């Protein structure tokens, strides 16, 4: 696209350069029936001279004062538009970089959070397994202690029942046979039965 100032300058130059051609063609135009181009008329000659002078004055004024200002304004405007476009491109590049950095930061933060969560869960699992193992050991010790205590209580109960069982057995035998049995044999039999009961209870 051509500069508007250059177009105006070419138009003015074309207008000035066409004046001699117009003056050269004026006699032929008058001969063809155009009295307004009869340069033998002093009034028409004065009008043409004044018109050419005014046109030349405006041409020189436009060329030396108006057109440079218009050219300066257009150049300044073009420079400002180009500067704005450069700033917009730079801002777009900065925005794209910021978005990319934000996405990378989000990915890194998510990965770090996931790693931290996995570490915390793994530590919690280890602690839970350790607590369960410790609790299991304590329960085993307590169960063994309770079983031992039960066995001791059973033994003491059986020991305490032996005299009573011996007395009951002696009384039953004496009542059934009419004779008094041997106390030692009664106690031995009761002890044997108690031992068998203890063995069966231990197996169960």
From TrEMBL:
Q: Which CDD domains match?
A: ATP-synt_Fo_b (cd06503)
| Sections of the chain in a coiled coil | 85-119
Ordered alphabetically, the record's keywords are:
ATP synthesis, Cell membrane, CF(0), Coiled coil, Hydrogen ion transport, Ion transport, Membrane, Signal, Transmembrane, Transmembrane helix, Transport
Note the topology in the membrane.
Answer: Single-pass membrane protein
Q: Where is the signal peptide?
A: 1-31
Is Repeat included in the keywords of this UniProt record? no
Subunit structure, briefly? F-type ATPases have 2 components, F(1) - the catalytic core - and F(0) - the membrane proton channel. F(1) has five subunits: alpha(3), beta(3), gamma(1), delta(1), epsilon(1). F(0) has three main subunits: a(1), b(2) and c(10-14). The alpha and beta chains form an alternating ring which encloses part of the gamma chain. F(1) is attached to F(0) by a central stalk formed by the gamma and epsilon chains, while a peripheral stalk is formed by the delta and b chains.
Q: What does this protein do?
A: Component of the F(0) channel, it forms part of the peripheral stalk, linking F(1) to F(0). The b'-subunit is a diverged and duplicated form of b found in plants and photosynthetic bacteria.
Q: What is the protein named?
A: ATP synthase subunit b
Provide the organism lineage as a comma list.
Answer: Bacteria, Pseudomonadati, Pseudomonadota, Alphaproteobacteria, Acetobacterales
């Amino acid at each position: 696209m051509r500069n508007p100032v250059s177009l105006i300058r070419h138009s003015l130059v074309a207008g000035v350069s066409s004046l001699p051609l117009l003056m050269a063609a004026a006699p032929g135009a008058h001969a063809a029936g155009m009295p307004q181009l009869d340069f033998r008329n002093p009034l028409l000659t004065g009008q043409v001279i004044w018109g050419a002078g005014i046109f030349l004055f405006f041409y020189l004024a436009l060329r030396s004062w108006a057109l440079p200002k218009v050219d300066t304004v257009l150049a300044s405007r073009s420079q400002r538009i180009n500067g704005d476009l450069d700033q917009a491109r730079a801002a777009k590049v900065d925005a794209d970089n910021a978005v990319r950095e934000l996405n990378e930061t989000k990915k890194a933060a998510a990965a770090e959070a996931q790693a931290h969560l996995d570490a915390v869960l793994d530590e919690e699992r280890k602690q839970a397994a350790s607590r369960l193992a410790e609790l299991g050991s304590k329960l085993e010790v307590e169960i063994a202690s309770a079983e031992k205590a039960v066995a001791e209580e059973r033994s003491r109960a059986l020991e305490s029942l032996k005299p009573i069982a011996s007395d009951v057995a002696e009384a039953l035998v004496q009542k059934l046979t009419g004779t008094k049995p041997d106390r030692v044999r009664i106690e031995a039999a009761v002890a044997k039965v108690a031992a068998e009961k203890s063995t069966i209870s231990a197996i169960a």
